[in-house]
Amino acid sequence: MTSGMTAEPVILDAKELTSDPELEARFTESAHRIPADLVGGGAALGWIEPHAAAHGRGVGRALTAALIADARETGIEVLTLDARGDNTNALHLYRSLGFTEYGRLPDFVAVGEHRYHKVFYMLDFRRQS
Questions:
Q1: In this structure, what are the phi and psi dihedrals at residue 11, rounded to the nearest 5 degrees?
Q2: pLDDT value for 111
Q3: How far is Cα 94 from Cα 87, in angstroms, rounded to an integer?
Q4: Which ranges constitute the DSSP H helices of 20-113?
Q5: Which residues share a beta bridge with 109?
Q6: Model pTM greater than 0.90?
Q7: For helices 21-40 and 59-73, what crossing angle results, to 10°?
Q8: 36, 93, 105, 121: which could join 99 in a potential S-S bond, CB 3.0 to 4.6 Å?
Q9: pLDDT exceeding 70 applies to what percent of the chain?
Q10: Correct CATH for 14-127 of 3.40.50.1220, 3.40.630.30, 3.40.50.300, 3.40.50.970
C-alpha cells in the first residue's frame, strides 16, 4: 500500500472468521496489534457513534472473548473496562460475558451538547473456577 492510501474496511461475520483458521489467526494478531499501536501513540480509544454495520455479526463478542482468554492465560486477576452509558449493545455484551458493573461517573462523557455516564465493568477471574 502506498503512502496516503487507506484500505477499505472489511466486515467479517464471526462464523466466517472461525471457519477459516488462517483468517482467525490473522484477525487475532491484528486485534492485538491495533489497540496496542493506538494506545502506544497516545490515542484515547472510543467512537462518538457506534459502527452500525458491524452490529450483530459477532465481531465485538469475538474480540472481547479473545481479550478475556488472553487475560486469563496471562494470570490477570481482574479485567476492567469502561463504556459510555448509552451504548446499550456493548453493555449487554459485557454482562453476557460475565462482566459486572462496579461504578459510574454521571455525565462524564461529553459529545457535543449531550452528556453520558461512563460505566465501569469488571470480570473477576479470582471468583471463577
A1: -100, 120
A2: 81
A3: 11
A4: 21-40, 59-73, 88-96
A5: 116
A6: no
A7: 80
A8: 121
A9: 73
A10: 3.40.630.30
8-state DSSP, 45? -
Alpha-helical regions (H) of 43-123: 59-73, 88-96
What residues contact residue 82 under an 8 Å CB cut-off, 6+ apart?
Answer: 118, 119, 120, 121
Residue type, position 114, single letter: H
Work out the burial of residue 97: count CB atoms within 10 Å of its CB; fewer than 13 is exposed, 13-18 middle, 19 or more buried: middle
- The cell for 116 is 453520558
Largest CA distance in the chain: 49
Q: Which of 68, 65, 61, 71 is nearest to 93 (CA)?
A: 61
- Of 106, 55, 59, 62, which Cα lies nearest the Cα of 84? 106
- The amino acid occupying position 48 is I
Sketch the domain layout of the chain as residue ranges.
Answer: 14-127
